[in-house]
Amino acid sequence: MHTQSDFDPLRDVQAGGGPGMRSFIYGHLAPESFPIAELLAACQYSLREEGSLALQYGPEQGYGPLIDYLRAKIERDEGLSLGRQHLTITAGCAGALDAIARLFTHPGDAVLVEAPTYTDTLHIFRDHHLRLFQVPVDEEGLIVESAAQRLEELRRAGERPLFLYTIANFQNPTGVTLSVERRKQLIDLARAHELRIIEDDVYRDLCYEGDVPPSLFALDESRETVIRVGSFSKILAPGLRLGWVTAAPQVIERLAHCGLRSMGGGANPFASHVVANFCERGLLEPHIARLREIYRARRDAALTALAHSMPPGVTWTHPRGGFFIWLTLPAPLLARQVIAAAEQRGVTCLPGDIFFAERGGERNLRLAFSYLPPDDISQGIAALGDAIRASL
Ligand SMILES: Cc1ncc(COP(=O)(O)O)c(C=O)c1O
């Protein structure tokens, strides 16, 4: 089984693969997309005008103006009116998921995850000794009927999962989006089984085609069933380590008033000041619009190159947003064999099996198209096509 520790951390720092390798490994941001001058101005403002607050321990729930900016954004984008009690700032989505696992589960608890799902979330859940059970995903996202069956089987075996983790929009690693119909069915299923949904919504703003469906959090009018996590990592910069949670007030209260937050004074107060200043100056919306253009062009380059370069029998998803395309190889090809052949041709990506909590993915490849410019994407996919042909 391939694990993260198989990778050399130095090789991994910039999108993986080593010198001269075209790497589709990581969903890293386009390096030229960072608004460095604007963030520098926001840093200067935060230090000059607010330094004694921005450098101090911050409030446990997060910096008020950033919470208020996010409330206004959510109201504008999704028509949801949330109070301050519904939102807390976190150290990225990763910090939120780790805190949810730490504060709302016990070692040995059962959690449902999508098959496949984001491998680092599996890592976090395993850090907390959770037992993971998988539910398959198809072109319309999580198969809710399979979730119902899995819950029934688990119930018969005396198991009662506490949470179901889903990436409903432009999923990592498949790029698929959960249909609205299934979203409603999933909420009904969760209510019937007293299962809470963790909705990882970090790609919501990166939509290149059509509309983004309403979030599970928005569809759950009770506000009791869904804990939704967002992040500035994909829409601004992951190095800021800033994200947020929207959930029922008692969940927010628990997340905000834990030992880590009390001692640490909230999550990243200085970064919160800088980002709040950036957002209050109206810079985030045009920045997101620019990101959509950059990543739409990369997605289109990848889909065009796949159509030109893949031999018959290879299939792939058509993401409407996000960073990832999921390839399925024809039998008897195996992903790891194809990646070895691809690396000899100067291109690399991730094998599908690392995205499964239990089993699967031996014939799948994940391509992250966010980091490489369009010409490299085209050439890299052409080389991958050659590697697949040579492995047949
Ligand atoms: C689905 C998903 N959730 C969370 C993250 C990480 O988010 P953050 O940087 O906010 O911790 C990623 C990054 O790849 C992701 O794909």
By CATH's scheme, which homologous superfamily of the largest domain applies?
Type I PLP-dependent aspartate aminotransferase-like (Major domain)
Instruction: Report the radius of gyration as a whole number of Å.
Output: 21 Å
Which class of secondary structure composition applies to the elements? alpha/beta
Number of strands: 14
Low-confidence stretches: 1-5, 7-13
Main sheet summary: 8 strands, mixed
In the CATH hierarchy, the architecture of the largest domain is 3-Layer(aba) Sandwich
The coarse silhouette is globular
For this structure, the CATH topology of the largest domain is: Aspartate Aminotransferase, domain 2
Into how many domains do the coordinates divide?
2
Number of helices: 14
Oligomer: single chain
| CATH classification class of the largest domain | Alpha Beta
Helical residues, percent: 40-55%
Order of helices and strands: HEHHEHEHEEHEHEHEEHHHHEEHEEEH
| Straight-line distance between termini | 23 Å
Portion in strands = 5-15%
Overall mean confidence score, pLDDT: 95
